[in-house]
Amino acid sequence: HPAEWTYANIDTQARSFKRYGLSFDWSRRLHTSDPEYYRWTQWLFLRFYERGLAYRKDSFVNWCPNDQTVLANEQVVQGLCERCSAVVTKRKLNQWYFKITDYAQRLLDDMELIEGKWPDRVLSMQRNWIGRSEGAYVDFAIEGRAEPVRVFTTRPDTLYGATFFVVAPEAELAAEIVTDAQRPAFEEYLEATKRATEIERQSSERPKTGVFLGVHAVNPVNDELLPVYAADYVLADYGTGAVMAVPAHDQRDLDFAKAFDLPVRVVVETGLPDPAQTFVATPGDGTYVNSPSLAGLADKKAGIAAITAKLAEDGRGESAITFRLRDWLLSRQRFWGCPIPIVHCPACGEVPVPDDQLPVQLPDLRGAELAPKGTSPLASATDWVNTTCPKCGGAAQRDTDTMDTFVDSSWYYFRYCSPNYTEGPFDPAEVAKWMPVAQYVGGVEHAILHLLYSRFFTKVLQDIGLIDFPEPFTQLMNQGQVINQGKAMSKSLGNGVDLGKQIDVYGVDAIRTTVVFAGPPEDDIDWADMSPGSSLKFLQRAYRLATDVASPVGTDFATGDLGLRRATHKAIAEVTETIEGQRFNVSVARLMELVNATRKVIDSGAGAADPAVREATEALAVMLSTIAPYVAEEMWELLGHAPAVANASWPVAEAALLVADHVTCVVQVQGKVRAKLEVSPSTSDAELEARALADPGVIRALDGRGVRQVIVRAPKLVSIVPA
DSSP of 399-453, one letter per residue? Predict the structure, then answer.
């Protein structure tokens, strides 16, 4: 049963998190599968429904034959199910959608608020997915059809080059306009189309196929009759599922024209060879030809404006902006999900479940067959399905689909602010205090899934008046992945690494340090190249410092070794900076340098009793607690402090100790380093020049030659050009 499996795994995860030493506020823990949570998911669904943002419609949907459920467009990756990698097909079903397209422009515009704060590739992926296009709607009359068919094109200026018209086979329009004589051939072609994936249909390598529908469309700029074909290179969910075909200037149209011996008419002279001869389309800009109303123009922008104005004047079109983004399909044919709080009544139609009757809880169904078989397993729970209509009191049925789990994850971060709040999905006062999220860490694989949906939800909540900000996450970092032997870990590849076993061998802190030290957090790391044993040795060396400290708690650090004190405060400054800059691997490197500097003082001079040793080791323990909390806690206790080190104040670097008492000045002769001088930071240009010219290494390099020029960049560089 999903509940047993889910909550057992949650318990395992929680134990792993605690063992690994992750710092969470466990009082804010929540489970999206708890009725106390999905009550508010249902409540939010109803608010969307009231605003017309949740609706049902019949349409061809993405269908995973393995998971036996529909998928949103965002969950189809290169024609495969993002959950199980099965080839996705098409099926016509009545499904629930969220009207995310109403927010397409705002989703684009508000990227200005997170530009430079989110990774560029995530913003680019979202922009491309939303896919804003400027162009025109063009109305084509169809033989035998009362209403014209409206298509969208980014190049209305090429209308004179249209020589045929194409409709997606699965679009309702195709079945509507096909003649009786052509219907058998069309239906056979439609069945073949359903067996092809979208990737196959869109492939430029695939031969173009289609079937004539027996009717013609009328080109609105010249009244020319264009034969209408159903062809699978056009998709039903792009606009109206119909396109005008201009083969001279679009390669896919040209390939189809070649396959069906259709005319190719050049209307933009680009200076390239005739596409009718080369079968290579010329999509570029140039001078308009064979286009009466555009004669003499050679500017695309002017051409588009002129044709659009003509279409508008004739009542056959208008300027338009469209988006690639499609509404979010949220119905799922699974038992384990949030029930949709709608009742279907023969008399009243769709009836929302009243707020005071939420949550609509899942039935238990223990012992029942829960695997989906094309319909939701909930449909078999007749005692649960059959209910009364909240509006008229008559017999009615509950909706048996459940919501996509991305609905749950589109707002959970709001619930974290007040997970036990009972008056609404979240306490507005707590959200005002905590939100928006200051730093979000998540995988780039959710760039057009969770992250896009979360942005949409946030904007709707703002419109409802529940929040007063438009974006949920101020900063975003995409973390890398731990791979092994060059590939993602997989049971099938046999390259999995058991984290628990690694911890058993090396300890939690060594594994944490290894992961952090491996590289920047956004990079993948290959475990085959890692050395947790080396991390363990570093931590042992740090631990031994705490066992060696001989000065008492409260020692005045000011009397300690000046060199070590400078090294300590330099480390404090740099670790603080690198942690805040999320360069944690550099932080570890600086801590390693501090361990070495401290050990050097212990093993010489005043030794372990030097106050600077205590200062360095205490600072080390506090800073190390962010990376290796267990070792740091042991060190803190050995140093004579009460637990916990995590409660200790973060060390602050003293400005006076960050000023170097000497720096290394590099001396070059003809661009080659010939000497290194230890000088004061305040050394003058004249003094640096004199010392450089007197250095034995420089004298040998000059070999009796005069000096033509000396360039001084005090206090770090002197460059000498011989005569």
Answer: ---EE-HHHHHTTHHHHTTSTT--SSSS-HHHHHHHPSEEEEE--GGGTTTHHHH
